[in-house]
Predict the 3D structure of the following.
Amino acid sequence: MKLLAITDRRTLADSVEDFLARAFVAGVDAVQIREKDLPALELLRLAERAGRLANPHGTRVLLNGRLDVALAAGLDGVHLPSAAPPADRARTVVPTGFLIGVSCHSIDDLRRCEQEGADYALFSPIFASVSKPGYGPALGVDHLARACRATTIPVYALGGVSAANARDCMEAGATGIAGISLFREAADLPALVARLRSAP
């Protein structure tokens, strides 16, 4: 995976399903359904509808926070907040190939989630971000580079990442980039995906 798009229905001009459909067609590698305030049944129905959308590039569909709902909907993985139970506990109940990601905000977080068996980490906030308030000051590209050297699992840069600074994140060692507004605000999502894929 290199490109991970994250949903936020409160800021979308259309529905989550419409956004996901566009992301699938554009060929992002993964999407994370991040609708943490939805009741479990509504979240399950949303996840099931996502699973029925045309997905020509095999984009992986992950769910934020709710392992039970992700499994019930037959999704490809779950993304856990930094304070969630460790990934190795979730690993005991998931099928082979099921992805488990973790949000990290420090190098210590990264090392811990690697030890606990996470498949990947979202490291944030790299830059100042409207979509990711409350996680402290921007860490910066130099800190991202140190974080990438501190772990062997894939690290995805999140928080204020744009088409203009994505290359800096990749050159710092990030496996890929993740974003909310980055993908939501793209006037031509396929063109953005192609541009981001060209980064080293």
The chain has a mean pLDDT of 93. The chain is about 35% helix and 15% strand. Residues 3-197 form a domain with the TIM Barrel fold (CATH 3.20.20.70). The radius of gyration is 16 Å.
